[in-house]
């Protein structure tokens, strides 16, 4: 199986599982990941963890799938993006739950930008991120040209994309590319604890938070204030908000249900 699915309480973990190919994407893995994400969106999960099997998170596209035979027409990479990577990034951003990424090893090309599309990224010390597109004559995709400048600034993003230099986990944290780096042997435990904590929180409110953050970059202050008003109105009608207020008044831990 190219995608491994594991459920622990309210947390679902999806593992990219082509370790012999550094978890590079082929058509089969794209289809399996789409199916898994469709299920996660509707099965009651309250937190998603995305990681990779073996010594890598994801090396991006498996270029052996793109080798042309003599006489073959050039591939339509735009159509491939729309059917696969663009759909994947939009799905992750739209999931109404926190999405954590545990980066174990190399995250290259689309694999790097897949990680950056997650809500919180934690990397092992040996992890690295590289925008490798320029080395084969392509531009960064999978949302990279949108996400990276917002995370590290235009100057760093431009240099990383043009030069294709690797960024180690410690540097990635210093630059604000990721939330945290940890020792490799602490990665699984750190992610498990964080995911369990987030799944116990008022996840309906976290889903609305994702909407607010997702639109903030393109909104004026007035538009964002209006959006906050509308989303807060929804949050205020949620079961979890009522439970949070009751728990505060009754001086007890809240029991959130994500609704």
Q: How would you describe the overall organization of this protein?
A:
- The chain is α/β, with parallel strands linked by helices.
- It folds into two domains: 197 residues, 2-enoyl-CoA Hydratase, Chain A, domain 1; 48 residues, Lyase 2-enoyl-coa Hydratase, Chain  A, domain 2 (Orthogonal Bundle), CATH 1.10.12.
- Helices cover 46% and strands 17% of the residues.
- α1 links the parallel β2 and β3.
- It is globular and about 70 Å long.
- The relative contact order is 0.11.
- The model has no long low-confidence stretch (mean pLDDT 94).
Percent helix? 40-55%
Strand content: 15-25%
Radius of gyration (CA) equals 19 Å
What is the molecular shape? globular
Total number of distinct structural domains: 2
Query: Segments where pLDDT lies below 50 for 5+ residues?
Result: none
Number of helices: 11
CATH topology type of the largest domain? 2-enoyl-CoA Hydratase, Chain A, domain 1
Q: What can be said about the biggest beta sheet?
A: 6 strands, mixed
Number of strands: 10
Q: Strands across the major sheet, in which order?
A: 1-2-3-5-7-10
* Broad structural category: alpha/beta
Q: What would CATH call the architecture of the largest domain?
A: Alpha-Beta Complex
Alpha carbon gap, first and last residue: 33 Å
CATH superfamily of the largest domain: 2-enoyl-CoA Hydratase, Chain A, domain 1
* Nearest-integer average pLDDT: 94
Quick one: CATH class of the largest domain?
Answer: Alpha Beta
Listing every helix as H and every strand as E from the N terminus to the C terminus, the arrangement reads EEHEEHHEEHEEHHEHEHHHH
């Amino acid at each position: 199986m190219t995608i491994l699915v594991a459920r622990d309480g309210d947390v679902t973990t999806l593992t990219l599982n082509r370790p012999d190919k550094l978890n590079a994407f082929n058509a089969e893995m794209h289809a399996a990941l789409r199916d898994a994400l469709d299920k996660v969106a509707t099965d009651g999960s309250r937190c998603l963890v995305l990681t990779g099997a073996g010594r890598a998170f994801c090396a991006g596209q498996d270029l052996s799938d793109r080798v042309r035979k003599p006489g073959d027409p050039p591939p339509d990479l735009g159509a491939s993006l729309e059917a696969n990577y663009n759909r994947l990034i939009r799905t992750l951003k739209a999931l109404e739950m926190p999405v954590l990424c545990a980066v174990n090893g190399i995250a290259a090309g689309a694999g790097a930008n897949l990680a950056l599309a997650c809500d919180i990224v934690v990397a092992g010390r040996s992890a690295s991120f590289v925008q490798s597109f320029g080395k084969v004559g392509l531009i960064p995709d999978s949302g990279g040209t949108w996400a990276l400048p917002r995370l590290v600034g235009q100057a760093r993003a431009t240099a990383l994309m043009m030069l294709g230099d690797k960024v180690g986990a410690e540097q990635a944290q210093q630059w604000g590319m990721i939330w945290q780096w940890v020792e490799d042997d602490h990665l699984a435990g750190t992610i498990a604890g964080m995911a369990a904590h987030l799944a116990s929180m008022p996840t309906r409110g976290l889903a609305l938070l994702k909407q607010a953050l997702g639109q903030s970059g393109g909104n004026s202050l007035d538009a964002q204030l209006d959006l906050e008003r509308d989303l807060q109105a929804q949050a205020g009608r949620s079961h979890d908000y009522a439970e949070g207020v009751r728990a505060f008044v009754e001086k007890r831990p809240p029991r959130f249900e994500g609704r």
